[in-house]
Structure prediction request, 224 residues.
Amino acid sequence: MRIIDLPAPERPRERLSTIGARHLADRELLAMVLGTGGSRGTGAHTLAERLLTTYGSVLELARAHPSDLTRIPGIGIAKASAVVSAFELARRADRSPERTVIGCTTDLLEVVTPLLKGQVRERLVLVVCDGMHRVIGSEVLTEGTAERAIVPVRDIMVAVLRRDGLAFALAHNHPDGDPEPTETDIEATSRVRAAADGLGLRFLDHLVVCDTTWRRVPVAAGTV
Prediction:
């Protein structure tokens, strides 16, 4: 079956956006690298399955030379080059300098403070990590008024999954300089923790960061 013939929610791109790349099968990921199928109505899924069957595993496919790949029906030089390039990028990522690890509150502060210090409106910063608590990425998720930032629980979970995160932390600022968490902060943190637990994600911390001081945001009393 061609990708275009699949129901929209079952197409690889849509599944990647909603549940994250780590939940997709090898065939689905490879089909997206290929982009389109070959001649005579052969779909990208079929070509991906053909490649995986020929080489036996993703590891063996990653070692293939473009000239070897083009011997497979439906794989021209453009598709072969795309596959080889994707694996080379993955290898380079593995050789990149070690990413920041969130091992303690100080590590988290170093990541979020540049995004929060000196702001006149409340910002909510999301820090997404892998299973080893290495930072995958950080972003300003919302920016509210001078008094409060919005904590959209669903948007937080979607943002973590889209980055293939397994753990995450939050931080926001109080422009008035008072670092004490509000009742709203505590309640929001409890909702975020509950949502993370439900998705099998690890919620590391939530900080209130001001220009000269900070506080951790606890969960509401009685929250498991």
Summary: The longest helix spans residues 77-95. The mean pLDDT is 87.
